[in-house]
Amino acid sequence: MMRTHRCGELRVEHAGAEVTIAGWVHHRRDHGKVIFIDLRDSSGAVQVVVHTEEHPEAYAAADRLQREFCALIRGRVDRRSDATINPKMATGEIELKATHVEILSESETPPFLIEDGVDADENLRLKHRYLDLRRPEMQERIRLRSRVVKGIRDYLDAEGFLEIETPILTRSTPEGARDFLVPSRLQPGTFFALPQSPQLYKQLLMVAGLDRYYQIPHCFRDEDLRADRALEFSQLDLEMSFVDEEDVIGVTEGLMVSLWRDVLGVEIRAPFPRIPYQESLRRFGNDKPDLRFAMELTDVASVFGDTTLGIFERVLKSGGALQAILVPGGGAIHHAELRKLEQQAMERGAKGLAWIIFKEGGEIDSPLAKHVSAAERGALSKTLDASAGDLALIVADTASVARTVLGGLRNTLARDRGLIPEGEWRFCWVVDPPLFEWSDEEQRYMSSHHPFTQPQPGWEEALAADPGSAKARAYDIVLNGMELASGSIRIHDRVMQQKVFTALGIDEAQAQSRFGFLLDAFRYGPPPHGGVAPGIDRIALQMAGVDNIREVTAFPKAASGNDPLTGAPTPVDQAQLDELGLRLRPV
Ligand code: ASP
Questions:
Q1: Cis peptide before 564 (omega within 30 of 0)
Q2: Does this model's pTM top 0.85?
Q3: Which are the contacts of 136, defined by CB distance < 8 A and separation ≥ 6?
Q4: 384 C-alpha vs ligand 1 centroid, how far in Å?
Q5: Which one, 3, 29, 73, 92, has the greatest CB density within 10 A?
Q6: For the packed helices 335-347 and 399-416, what is the interaxial angle rounded to 10 degrees?
């Protein structure tokens, strides 16, 4: 071994020991006859002192060191005098008196400081990701992610799950996103799809009798990127046979409790609350409720039954909704800020945002004040349980727009106004979601989860009456307003599977050609089964307290979908295209 110790582990108990450390020059301060170096490796940093007179050769080498040079240093650990102790460093009670300094490799000046909290442009960080990852906070995030993955493996292994890999070159799995395609050279004109998830393979593993499966696969979805979504990401994919919702939910909750305990030392309590999908929409405006703060949506239509206000009247007459949230103390928000909130509401689809500030003595301050009667003021205040100084934000629109807008404002306002308590972990399950959702883009019903999700009993009647009212045996786990996982009990009956396909507009011939292998497998005694797939990146993001999955991914793509490090995606040689039988259309 080149080194005897790691920089960050040296302590007072090592005083007097001869040690060899290796790492990168974090700082170097030249005080004439003495050079101070902070040498850093993955365990932390330690101060090294080199004296000219005592060790001229070491000094000569130290004199050449610059930031990020890679060096090996030998010397004696010395207790620092009380006056020179640095309480900010874990190694601050000691320093290393160098007897030998060796440059292992030189470094150009890095394009940004290798320190925490660096505010370099993200593309620059990604282009030099190997330097970005040297920063202590990035190392900590990568370590945390590794502990998450280890925690998952330990837990599931103890629960009798087998880790089984499934192919990356496969055929399309309908998770609702666009596929990444890989042209086949051996069969020109045909394509593999990269898996959006191993959904169908894991179901086949259940037919195969491998009744507790998991893996941590990469999944690929050609979608627009967001803070919590990337072109490729890692999931914990698991599936179990002979189970119902309670079993899958139980294993997932047990896993979360054990991960939070092992990785963060935090005790979270299970079972997590379960919120029916419709209730979540009604109370929080979306199916990813953040339970760390209140400000729930309230229906205020009854308050304005006799309104003379044109917009409220029109919306109510046409069967629309009047929804409100109450912002405690929001009366202090400046008018300019309120206009910004209105702007945000309009960006989310509202035609406007009404605001009412409650004042002492039942008075209000609002652009609508003269259209709101004393009775309405009183009823509104009562319905919202408002006090003087609170602010009500009201959206009059279709129920769906009003919910989306207020659900979004609820989250933004809670964040901006510091209403989110630190260190709270509020998990919940959102259950009983619809089986189908109408897609405006496709002008047809699509699966809310995926087409292999089992409908709840009575779905056929519901489908005939109103396709949106059929419910699925599916469940999402949500943490602090972020969806961590979706899962469901699957269909294991060919006839039922075809009925669902038919409802989705997939006839028997199409079903056979796309999913024939699954339908065929279902001819041979398929067991009842179900599973779930939590996103590893999202778990790590939440635990690390960052707001973008790129911060917990070693080599992420940039927000544009490109990889600034390798330059991918790139054009390819004509010869490669020829081999694949592909011709590019000029763009
Ligand atoms: N395959 C699903 C997904 O990726 C998860 C599941 O149903 O287990 O969302």
A1: no
A2: yes
A3: 40, 44, 115, 116
A4: 39
A5: 73
A6: 130
Domain membership of residue 390 (yes or no) is yes
Residue whose Cα lies nearest atom 9 of ligand 1: it is 486
Domain tally, the chain: 2
Q: Which of 400, 420, 440 is the last residue of a domain?
A: 420
Residues 162-197 as b/e (b if ≥16 CB within 10 A, e otherwise) read eebebeeebebbbbbbebbeebeeeeeeeebbbbbb
- Residue 116: what pLDDT? 94
Which atom of ligand 1 approaches the CA of 452 most closely?
Answer: 7
Ligand 1 center to residue 43 CA distance, Å?
A: 37
End-to-end CA distance of the chain: 55
Helix (H, G, I), strand (E, B) or coil at 227: coil
- Ligand 1 atom closest to Cα of residue 196: 4
**pLDDT value at position 224?**
83
Tell whether the model's pLDDT for residue 174 goes beyond 90.
no
Assigned domain for 126 exists = no
> Is residue 115 situated within a structural domain?
no
* Side-chain half-sphere CA neighbours of 415 within 13 A: 10
| Tens digits of residue pLDDT in 368-391 | 999 999 999 999 999 999 999 999
pLDDT of residue 154: 98
Which of 228, 486, 492 best tests ligand 1's pocket when mutated (most atoms within 8 Å of CB)?
A: 486
- CB contact set of 556 (below 8 Å; sequence gap of 6+): 126, 230, 549, 550
Q: Which of 450, 488, 490 to mutate to test the pocket of ligand 1 (most atoms within 8 A of CB)?
A: 450
Q: Ligand 1 centre from 237 Cα, in Å? A: 7
CATH number for 306: 3.30.1360.30
Does the pLDDT value for residue 227 go beyond 80? no
Task: Determine the length of the chain.
Answer: 587
Containing structural domain, residue 354: 293-420
Q: Is 455 touching ligand 1 by the criterion CB < 6 Å?
A: no
Which residue, 105, 134, 165, sits at the end of a domain?
105
| Residue 519 pLDDT level (bands cut at 50, 70, 90) | very high
pLDDT of residue 580: 94
What was the pLDDT predicted at 304? 93
Q: Is residue 175 in contact with ligand 1, taking CB distance under 6 Å?
A: yes
Distance 196 CA to ligand 1 centre (A): 9
Tell me if 198 CB under 6 Å of ligand 1: no
CB of 488 within 6 A of ligand 1: the answer is yes
Q: For 350-372, what is the mean pLDDT?
A: 94
Instruction: Name the closest-CA residue to atom 7, ligand 1.
Output: 487
Q: Residue 22 maps to which CATH number?
A: 2.40.50.140
Residue 191 is assigned to a structural domain of this protein: no
